[in-house]
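Structure in, sequence out. Go:
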């Protein structure tokens, strides 16, 4: 697989001058080749091709759609070595992590292929006619699901495979029957192009209409805005910052014809450790928490950014254990200089707030991309009067909030905004408190955990990776698991259709 520095529009490479480069976060070196910034002309070409081939793609038999998804996975596997090598250069992520993420991406495609082939995702419902019903007859009514149309997908920086060109949003949209136009992430454009080449190879091998997939390369916000505002785009999927997701959401809402934006954005993923769990868990719980904060240099949207505890005699030894664990965490590069810069600024601003004290680990410093975990501390009282403490600082840091009582911990839970996850650590003797806490937290988060840590996100049918705003722009959606397909479908009812006009799934 060779890199060209191109956007790929309906199977064709589109190259102009080299406008931007990927930078190796480990040594700061510029990586070749340079990549051409896509413009409005290419946006229009990609979306027009997607709309042109939409009907042809959505009308394919479901087994053919499923085979296409499987072939994308096979093509990714065929290019595994090149993909992992390039992603390592562009992100600084270690090879085992990238190998595992690519396997997850392939398995995600397989899962959607099986899900589509089964056809149950169409959620068909049939109410047969009742011509003799009194006082009025009932018509024959049949419901199924149809795809929305061309979908714009914005790749994330922190998962160059699983939340990028061939990641979950693309897999879900293609599974639903929607053509996809991906806006590649400028921090790993080479990885984006290689993954796009794999999809294009699958398009050709399976005889899919070429407009079913395009990749737009670019580093400007203008490119993303042009894509979202294009009148033929019918939905948007985004993974990234709250500022970026909200900007796209507002653009889509202000179109003459508004469209849904499914943005997965900020989350601090609070963890609540009840007194019994703190007394019993001790060093083991502290180590697991510190490891969760440090995992992937804190660059997970499920990174635990808040830890709530109740003041107790065991708290000092618990904090000391966290400090010891964080001090031995390896120094590692963040994904790119911009993320490190934002992390350092966010951490410093948080540390300067009233009532915030440094507790453990190492504060971010320097202009390189390197970072290690850190822990700040504040009181439950300060947390309740300063909502900015609960804002996400994307990176390997967390804030321990020491509450005076269980009642204050419950107040803090009530004060939280929407989250992707919320976790409670408790003993069997704390069931009543757990019930109270989970009753509050189920209104705040998309996934609730008991005696675990939120960083891992299983790809399966029952996963919910979403939550109330600002975790996402639509609390009813998920970006992981088969339920993610619902974002790109809408229900349609067919009344009194003769069998000859019914789609296959309604002919019974």
């Amino acid at each position: 697989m060779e890199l060209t520095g191109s956007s790929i529009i309906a199977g064709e490479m589109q190259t102009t001058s080299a406008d931007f480069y990927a930078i190796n976060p480990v040594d700061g070196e510029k990586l070749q080749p340079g990549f051409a910034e896509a413009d409005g002309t290419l946006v229009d070409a990609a979306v027009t091709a997607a709309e042109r081939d939409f009907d042809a793609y959505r009308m394919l038999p479901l087994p053919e759609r499923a085979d296409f998804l499987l072939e994308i996975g096979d093509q990714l596997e065929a290019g595994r070595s090149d993909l992992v090598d390039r992603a390592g250069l562009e992100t600084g992520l270690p090879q085992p992590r990238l190998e595992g993420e690519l396997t997850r991406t392939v398995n995600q495609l397989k899962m959607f292929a099986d899900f589509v082939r089964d056809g149950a995702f169409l959620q068909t419902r049939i109410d047969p006619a009742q011509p003799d019903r009194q006082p009025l007859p009932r018509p024959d009514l049949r419901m199924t699901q149809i795809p929305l149309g061309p979908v714009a997908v914005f790749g994330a920086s922190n998962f160059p495979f699983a939340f990028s060109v061939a990641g979950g949003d693309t897999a879900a949209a293609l599974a639903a029957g929607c053509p996809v136009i991906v806006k590649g992430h400028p921090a790993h454009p080479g990885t984006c192009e290689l993954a796009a080449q794999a999809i294009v190879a699958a398009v050709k091998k399976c005889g899919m209409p070429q407009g079913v997939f395009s990749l737009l390369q670019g580093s400007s916000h203008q490119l993303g805005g042009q894509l979202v505002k294009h009148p033929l785009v019918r939905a948007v999927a985004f993974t990234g910052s709250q500022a970026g997701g909200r900007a796209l959401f507002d653009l889509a809402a202000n179109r003459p014809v508004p469209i849904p934006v499914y943005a997965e954005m900020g989350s601090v993923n609070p963890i609540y450790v009840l007194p019994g769990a703190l007394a019993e868990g001790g060093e083991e719980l502290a180590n697991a928490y510190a490891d969760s904060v440090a995992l992937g240099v804190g660059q997970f949207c499920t990174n635990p950014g808040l830890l709530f505890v109740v003041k107790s005699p065991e708290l000092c030894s618990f904090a000391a254990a966290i400090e010891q664990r964080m001090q031995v965490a390896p120094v590692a590069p963040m994904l790119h200089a911009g993320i490190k810069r934002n992390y350092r600024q966010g951490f410093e601003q948080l540390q300067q707030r009233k009532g915030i004290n440094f507790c453990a680990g190492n504060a971010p410093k320097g202009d390189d991309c390197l970072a290690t975990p850190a822990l700040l501390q504040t009181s439950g009282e300060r947390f309740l009067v300063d909502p900015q403490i609960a804002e996400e600082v994307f990176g390997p840091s967390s804030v321990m909030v020491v509450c005076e009582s269980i009642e204050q911990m419950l107040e803090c839970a009530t004060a939280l905004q929407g989250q992707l996850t919320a976790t409670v650590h408790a003993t069997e003797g704390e069931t009543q408190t757990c019930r109270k806490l989970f009753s509050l937290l189920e209104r705040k988060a998309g996934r609730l955990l008991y005696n675990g840590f939120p960083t891992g996100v299983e790809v399966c049918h029952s996963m919910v990776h979403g939550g109330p705003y600002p975790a996402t722009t639509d609390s009813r959606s998920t970006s992981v698991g088969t339920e993610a397909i619902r974002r790109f479908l809408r229900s349609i009812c067919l009344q009194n259709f003769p069998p000859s006009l019914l789609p296959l799934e309604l002919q019974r």
